[in-house]
Amino acid sequence: MNNYKPTRKTAWRHGRRCVNALAEVLLKAILPSLTIAWMLLLSGCPSPTTPEHVHDYGEWTVTTAAFCLTEGVETRTCSLDASHTETRPIAALPHDMDWVVTTALTSSALGVETHSCQRAGCDHTGETRGYPQMPYIITGSGTSFTAKIDGTTIDDADGAAIADVITAIRSHAGGADIGIQFDDGGTLDIGTERAIFDNANANGDGTWGHITLTGSITSANTGAGHGTIELDDNVTITSTADIFNTSTETDRLSIRIEGTATLNITGGTVEVSGGSAISCGTGTVLNISGGTVKTNTRSAIQVLGTVNISGNALVTGASTTDIGTIWIFGADARVNISGGVVRNTAANDNAKAISIFGSPWGNSNHPDALIITGGTVGAMDEDGNGTIGMAIAISTPSGITISQANPSVPTLITSANTTAGRGTIIVVTADGSPIAINSGRVENTADHANAQSIVAPSDNAAGRVVIEPAAEVEPLPLWMAD
Ligand SMILES: [Zn+2]
Ligand SMILES: [Zn+2]
Question: Which of 4, 198, 221, 414 holds its CA 20 to 30 A away from the CA of 235?
């Protein structure tokens, strides 16, 4: 044994002097095999009870395939001893989801599609939706309207009154989220009727899922406070439709929102000839992120609920009365503007983009009645040039906050008002919640001795108007000017 001088090979095989052996391996294979050498070092010396060879693993082979949400296993085996194996996981597969028609469309009911996994052996299913994914199309005129989907005329909606056709669609849809298109490329004229979306359920006709409106619809309905479209009973609608009311009466509407309904306008034009384009009732929500809401003589939006204006919405009017393009009244009325344009285009010193005052339906007294964080509110023409009206007129205790939230969406309150005692913003009542101008810009662009940015009672003696240093107010109000 004393003379025993193991060769490198035997030393390795017997697990002796393995450090030396490793060092030799490193030296002789240093450049091409550095990685292998490191692996050997890191794997440590074989202990006397473990096999005394360098494993010679073959290719990885799949021993258990991965499946939906379940890892698989790969194994490789040492060619020198098949009992030496290594395993590693195979990443789990996501479900292979696709929509599959599970119930066909009939004249009495919308079909159903189910989102389900297409991998053999997996029975995972997700949500369902109506089938087909295309709108109901309402056509007709007078008292004879028809609703079809994918060419199928639905039951009770063939030559029926518009109210019956809408009820028939609600029943047919069975609560699915659906689209409704008014007319097939033209404008659906419902005469003096209304298209009412509610969940009145006396006939067991089900309730609405989410409704998406497209196309074009008009009426000249005759009932006070009636709209061409009406929402009630918690219905939610998203619309890019063009919706008109051509009546010249001052109490007609294009859209009336009641109950706790929600209307999202993302495009299209909502326009009224004589009354208000949209009435937003107490407890309702109106979100306008695109499209145009237009009135000619009264308010574009009369607000008792909550109105959110953002994106590239245009809310425009030309009223010359105390009713502004947006008219905020009622104890719970709130308007939040984070983008878009609200304007009054009338070249009239009584024109108002936003008016906040009382009414027969209640006096606005919410501390956050109007919050502007971006967008333009102005007495201005269609080219954006200031006119002699007012941007905001407030004659209630309600509070207003104007600030600049996002530099890319400037907050601009503007007019070119030249009437003594008026301004871009006029505050009529001395007492109430603060009129806080925290940041953003309030301007009067008129080059005129009477041009004022903000007018408050008794030169703001009650201190209701609070202007923070970050706000740009030009010209400064008289009580602040030198
Ligand atoms: Zn081995
Ligand atoms: Zn699956």
Answer: 221
